[in-house]
Design goal:
The structure is a single chain. By secondary structure, this protein is an alpha+beta fold. Helices cover about 35% and strands about 20% of the residues. The chain is built from three helices and five strands, in the order H-H-E-H-E-E-E-E. Strands 1-4-5-2-3 form a five-stranded mixed β-sheet. Strand 4 and strand 5 form a beta hairpin.
Length: about 140
């Protein structure tokens, strides 16, 4: 039997060195954890939801729930600024509202999104009175 008495210290030193090596290796490759990080904050998602609800309330017609009149929406920057204030979106946030089918854009207002900046997106299914969205389109709201 060995009388050194350092077996516990040797074990502890080995575990510490192993943990330091693992932490160092993981810190050198941060993109490994990239897919697990949410690029959009929860406040942006809530803002996008509030804006979508505000658009639905403002542009609703008497024809039924989620039936919109999009004539005032197309390219009207004053409408978007007023909508940002009513929905509580900060002035420095950018906002885009689009009514679209699968193949084309019916109406669009707000800022143009440049680059690959992450944005909160809310999609609602809506109809319009007449036109290509009579049987359903998507109201897409982006906040970034």
């Amino acid at each position: 039997m060995n009388q050194r008495g350092q077996t516990a210290y040797d074990y502890l030193l080995g575990i510490v060195l192993l943990l330091v090596a693992i932490i160092t290796a993981l810190s050198l490759f941060p993109q490994v954890f990239g897919p697990f990080v949410d690029p959009v904050s929860a406040d942006k998602e809530k803002m996008a939801d509030r804006v979508a609800e505000e658009v639905l309330e403002d542009n609703a017609t008497v024809a039924g729930d989620r039936t919109l009149n999009v004539s005032g929406l197309d390219g009207d920057d004053d409408y978007v600024e007023g909508l940002k204030k009513r929905a509580g979106v900060n002035e420095y946030r950018s906002l885009n509202i689009t009514v679209q089918t699968r193949t084309k854009t019916i109406a669009q207002a707000g800022d143009e999104r440049l680059g690959n900046e992450p944005s909160a997106t809310t999609v609602r299914t809506v109809r319009t009175t007449g036109g290509p969205c009579e049987y359903g389109c998507q109201l897409v709201v982006w906040v970034w």
